[in-house]
Write a structure and sequence with these properties.
alpha/beta, TIM Barrel, eight-stranded parallel β-sheet, two-stranded antiparallel ribbon, globular, binds (5S)-5-amino-3-OXO-hexanoic acid, binds zinc ion
Amino acid sequence: MEKLIITAAICGAEVTKEDNANLPVTPEEIAHSALGVEKAGASVIHVHVRDKNGKPTQDKEVFKKTFMIMNELGVKAIIQPSTGGAAGMSWDERFQPLCLSPEMASLDCGSVNFGDEVFVNEFPLMRNLASRMKSLGILPELECFEPGHIYNALTLKKEGLLPEHLHFGIILGVPGAIKASIKNLLFMVELLPSESTWMAAGIGRYELSVAAHAIVMGGHVRVGFEDNIYYTKGVPAESNVQLVSRIVRLSGELGRDVAAPDEAREILHIK
Ligand code: KMH
Ligand code: ZN
């Protein structure tokens, strides 16, 4: 099996410091968390940023500041900003981090209920994001919250808007979307083109079981405060590092080595 890419989704857009006081929200906190998870074994950092009040923002200046601090700290992991932001954000807001030419970015592949909100991803938006990423050489992580999103991604591929290599993110258990069960994970993975790579993320209490199955299935894994703020039932996680470190231990026990950032680049066909 190829080495395991661990993505750390360290902040997200929905969780607050009230939910878990250890959530990094300022550019400094997010950058230090990125360094910590990289040292622990993460090779991709999925990045959301917050404004001065801790609210989700897609302001490119905040992304820029965050990336600059990561760079100063010597972070070598693949930086993957979100183009999803938070439900209700405009196209203009969502495109902003692409100006910074990251190696990778998320590309959400369809609309979905997201808690009490609707996270809207209409085809014209997906096409625009995909073609902007393609022209800038940014690898999209094709985020699929529902099985139908995989078909949407394949439509974008047919339309010539995606790179040769496809990398999917299967996110299970968003309230309002497909449940996080192993049967659903298997079902969605079987829909993927055989030559593609994929990572799986389980929301909340399903983070660990989804990760464990992805490791043995040959997929890759995402963990972090964006998806889950607890270490075990009722026990808040101390840090993103704690969540990543558990996956590294688990993967070691299961006999699968963890990829360093440059090995992740190779697996993902990032030049
Ligand atoms: N915050 C969610 C509404 C992404 O990063 O691309 C969307 C999200 C997906 O987190
Ligand atoms: Zn995200």
